[in-house]
Amino acid sequence: MAKQNDIKYLSSTRVDRRKKKYCRFKKLGIQYVDYKDAEFLKKFLNEQGKMLPRRLSGNSLKFQRKVAQAIKKARQMALLPYVTDLMK
Amino acid sequence: MATANTTQDQKLQSYELMIIFTPVLAEEEYKNAQQKYTNLITSNGGSIVASEPMGLRNLAYPIAKKTTGLYWLTEFQAPTSVNHMLEIQMGRDESIMRQMITRLDKYAVAYNDRRRKGIKLEHTPKRAAEEVEAEDNA
Fold it and tell me: H or E element: which one contains A67?
C-alpha cells in the first residue's frame, strides 16, 4: 500500500483504533427477532452453541433479551442445539 | 384482519403454533392432523392467518430417539381461551413430539407477513441492510 518514497517504520504506524460496536437491530431497524430463523440466530452463538455476551455481540440490552428468548425457543423446537461441538 | 379486532366482542390475539409430529406419520395422517388442529381453532372462534407445512426436517438433537420431525407452522388469531384447550388436546396426541404456541406482537405479525411474501428478511421497513453495510465501509 505504502508509496515508494514513504518512510519505513519497523512497527505499524497505524494506531489501533477498534471499530465501534453497534447494535445491529437498532442500526438495521429490525423490530422482531424470529426464533424460526436459525441461521440468523447462529450469529449470536459460539461454536459450542452457547450464546455470546453483549460484550462481544454489541447488542443493546433490549435486543439481547429478545435474542436470548428467540434462541431458547429455537432450542426447544430443536432448530438449534443445546450443546454441540463445531457448529459452524 | 387486524382491523376486525375491535368489532369482535371477545378480543382476538395473534398467535403462532409450531408442532413437531413424529416422522413415522404417513402423508395422509400428517394432513389429517393439521386439519384437526385447524378445525379446533376455527370452531372456537379463531381464524387461521396462514398455515405452512414445513415437512420433514432434521432435528438439532434427538427427541424420543428420533432424529427427524414433521414440522407444521401456523399463524392464527383467536381468543385467549383457545390456547389452553389446544394445549390439552396436543398433550393427549401421541403423534406430537413437541409443540409451542407463541404470542405475536404487531412487529412479529408484520415480520411473518414479509417472510411469507419472500421479502429478504434483513430488509426492514426502515432501511435495507446493504445500505448500512455500505455506510459502514465508507
Answer: helix A61-76
**CA B124 vs CA A3, A28, A69, B114: distances in Å:** 43, 7, 21, 9
Which grid coordinates are listed for B90? 396436543
Inter-chain CB proximity A29 and B20 less than 8 Å: no
The H or E element spanning position B53 is strand B47-63
Q: What is the dihedral of CA B82, B83, B85, B86, to 10 degrees?
A: 110
Q: Which residues in chain B have Cβ-Cβ distances shorter than 8 Å to A81?
A: 60-61
**Chain B residues with beta carbon closer than 8 angstroms to that of A75:** 60
Distance CA B20, CA B72 (A): 7
pLDDT, tens only, A35-54: 998 888 999 999 999 999 99
Q: ipTM score here?
A: 0.76
pTM: 0.78
Cβ contact B51:A72 at 8 Å: no
